[in-house]
Prior knowledge:
- The protein is globular.
- It has one domain (3-175): Cyclic phosphodiesterase (Cyclic Phosphodiesterase, Chain: A).
- It is an alpha+beta fold.
- Helices cover 25% and strands 35% of the residues.
- Belongs to the 2H phosphoesterase superfamily. ThpR family.
- It is an enzyme of class 3 (hydrolase).
Amino acid sequence: MPRLFTGLEIPSDISRTLSDLRGGLPGARWIDPENYHLTLRFIGDIDGASANEIASVLPRINRKPFDVTLRGLSSFGGKKPRAVVASVEPSAPLVELQAELERLMRRCGLDPEGRKFTPHVTLARLRDASNHDVANYLSVRGYFPSKVFTAERFVLFSSRASVGGGPYVVEDSYALSA
């Protein structure tokens, strides 16, 4: 049973910049740079027939390429931090693409996404990291000059059930070329 999600790949030059921010945070499990991505819609563990249906509707998306801007680091989890992420500015084209993917997935019978879309690239998953350690890490490494890339396609990723994320496999890609 495949575990699927749609997302944007992060270009290798930006992945290198983000990977330079690794280290210096107790309790962090750092994501391998080749697995950096921006999740658009988590699909989950589904059967083969559902996976084929999803793959068949994704080419219907007809959108133009758009710029994606990464700006600074933050954490998710509030008082119990669970991840360090590179923040992504929620531009109109990005939010509209995500919303269209959400509509298509619901038409395919998936439940609505349970969380509000907050675009980001996960750099580390945290286990037993203190607020103090995360705040210190972010104060030292949390700022970096904005990085911009043009999203020219989105992809259907698969992953195996694992702890910490990855490895991710591109099952198919869909050009943004309206």
